[in-house]
């Protein structure tokens, strides 16, 4: 077992002191300077961006979504698929014009994409208007980097390969007032053969239970109603801790916090989703009846090539065990179409698995080779058009299943959490069913942040519609 490096409170205080110094510089400007934080990728990145905003706020920045107005631009990037990278590079490239007009602008790139040496090098050579590049493992040093750039000329690159650490006590400016992210662990040890995450996010490391509980309690106290616990594989929480607390134990302790709120979590790896987890979910009344359990592919050979370390049958058995305990569990999954060497017959097994499990919703992706991963070296003979055809078949099948599952809600009354505005005339509120399905509801803004009983009156593939009952 590898011991987790923890950043000392003195180090964080030092970073907060840089915030104070930057705030002093910024207070001398004629108007309050603004920052723009743009986030790509998954919820972990969203959570990281909330901390970047927390630091920026302490440095005296207000926020804008308009690049032209921003003195500091932070782009928090994702490397999961080539498409995500190309989008970021396009947007970063376009920033060069704004910077010509506003030479005082500081452009920062962080997140998973820049942790890859080839990308960091590309930015160094070809994107010379980028001032600061730092990887996810050193996010806690952002104040120091930015303060240096405010006081000295030059560029900063901090993307050395590190196993990663845990830093507590970083302030956060959260985007939402009803739902909050709570990271419980960082990094990944699984090395699925297609995936870049373990290379850019470092090794698995767990936050201490007392730190997580303190954060959860504070959020509930502030009125948050929906806490989503985050980690690449939350089921392996605690393996690096001395406390002997596993993820189920953590769920139980968060469930014991007094208050009216829901607990969700993601992501769960099927190989580590145990009967103990299912039994804990069933018993803890605040744990929402929803599980995101990615299966990636329906064929055993492909699962093996992916290094997922579970079989199709094991997956089906786990789903059956979970449904026996929580019959109305909402199940979602991730699927990759067109993994190198996947044949038509193997793809059919993915469709078959969909029919057997009948997921409520799916996140579907076409395989994208990630340089440096084992799968990127594997022969990949299937032409892209064929993969697209399979992808479309998969989406079509899932849309039919989702529509059928949603139609079955009509007439039911559910306790839903109103989380915002839907932007849809007639059903102005956006809410979530206990299993996190989107439901658009008739009602007034004063209900935002409240649990209300909603009668489902309509449904389509993507969402439900309802009125207060
Ligand atoms: N830790 C999570 C997944 C994080 S990445 C888990 O193991 O479930 C989110 C999803 O992106 C993955 O589940 C996978 O379906 C998809 N993905 C990851 N790498 C990919 C790649 N190279 N090409 C296409 N999809 C990929
Ligand atoms: Fe990637 Fe696999 Fe880790 Fe998920 S479990 S982040 S898919 S390596
Ligand atoms: Fe992307 Fe990094 Fe998340 S690669 S999906 S932002 S962990």
Explain what this protein looks like in three dimensions.
- This protein starts with a strand and ends with a strand.
- It is 36% helix and 21% strand.
- The protein contains 13 helices and 21 strands.
- The radius of gyration is 23 Å and the shape is globular.
- The chain has 469 residues and is an alpha/beta fold.
- The structure holds S-adenosyl-L-homocysteine, iron/sulfur cluster and FE3-S4 cluster.
Secondary structure blueprint with pairings:
Blueprint lengths: L4 E2 L2 H19 L6 E6 L3 H16 L3 E2 L8 E6 L4 H20 L4 E6 L5 H10 L5 E3 L7 H10 L4 E3 L6 E2 L12 E5 L1 E2 L10 H5 L3 E2 L2 H13 L4 E5 L16 H9 L6 E5 L8 H9 L6 E3 L7 H6 L6 H14 L4 E8 L6 H14 L3 E6 L17 H24 L5 E9 L7 E4 L5 E5 L8 E9 L4 E5 L1
Parallel strand pairs: 1-8, 2-3, 2-4, 4-5, 5-6, 6-7, 9-12, 12-13, 14-15, 15-16, 19-21
Antiparallel strand pairs: 10-11, 17-18, 17-20, 18-19, 20-21
The chain binds S-adenosyl-L-homocysteine, iron/sulfur cluster and FE3-S4 cluster.
């Amino acid at each position: 077992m590898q011991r987790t490096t923890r950043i000392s409170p003195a180090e964080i205080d030092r970073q907060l002191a840089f915030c104070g110094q930057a705030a002093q510089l910024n207070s001398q400007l004629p108007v309050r300077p603004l920052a723009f934080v743009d986030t790509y990728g998954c919820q972990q990145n969203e959570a990281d961006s909330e901390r970047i905003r927390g630091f920026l706020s302490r440095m005296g920045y207000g926020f804008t979504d308009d690049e032209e107005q921003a003195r500091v631009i932070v782009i928090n990037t994702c490397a999961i698929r080539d498409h995500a990278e190309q989008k970021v590079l396009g947007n970063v490239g376009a920033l060069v014009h704004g910077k010509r007009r506003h030479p005082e602008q500081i452009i920062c790139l962080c997140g998973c994409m820049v942790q890859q040496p080839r990308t960091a090098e590309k930015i160094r050579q070809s994107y010379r208007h980028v001032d600061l590049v730092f990887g996810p493992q050193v996010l806690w040093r952002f104040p120091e980097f930015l303060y240096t750039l405010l006081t000295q000329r030059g560029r900063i690159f901090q993307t050395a390969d590190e196993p990663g650490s845990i830093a507590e006590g970083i302030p956060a400016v959260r985007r939402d007032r009803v739902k909050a992210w709570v990271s419980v662990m960082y990094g990944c040890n699984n090395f699925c053969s297609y995936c870049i995450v373990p290379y850019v996010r470092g090794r698995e490391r767990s936050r201490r239970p007392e730190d997580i509980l303190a954060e959860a309690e504070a959020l509930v106290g502030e009125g948050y109603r929906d806490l989503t616990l985050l980690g690449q594989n939350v089921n392996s929480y605690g393996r690096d801790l001395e406390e002997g607390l596993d993820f189920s134990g953590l769920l139980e302790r968060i469930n014991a916090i007094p208050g009216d709120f829901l607990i969700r979590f993601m992501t769960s790896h099927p190989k580590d989703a145990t009967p103990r987890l299912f039994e804990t979910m069933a018993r803890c009344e605040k744990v929402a009846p929803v599980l995101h359990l990615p299966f990636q592919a329906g064929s055993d050979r492909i699962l093996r090539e992916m290094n997922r370390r579970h079989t199709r049958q094991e997956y089906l058995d786990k789903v059956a065990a979970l449904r026996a305990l929580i019959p109305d569990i909402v199940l979602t999954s991730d699927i990759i179409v067109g993994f190198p060497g996947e044949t038509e017959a193997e793809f059919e097994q993915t469709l078959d698995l969909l029919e057997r499990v009948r997921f409520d919703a799916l996140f579907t992706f076409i395989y994208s080779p990630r340089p440096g991963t084992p799968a990127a070296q594997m022969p990949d003979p299937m032409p892209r058009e064929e993969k697209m055809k399979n992808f479309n078949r998969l989406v079509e099948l899932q849309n039919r299943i989702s529509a059928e599952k949603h139609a079955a809600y009509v007439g039911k009354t559910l306790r839903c959490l109103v989380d915002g505005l839907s932007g849809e005339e007639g059903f102005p509120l956006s809410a979530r069913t206990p299993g996190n399905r989107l439901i658009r509801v008739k009602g007034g803004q004063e209900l935002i942040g409240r649990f209300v009983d909603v009668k489902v009156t309509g449904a389509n593939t993507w969402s439900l519609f309802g009125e207060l009952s």
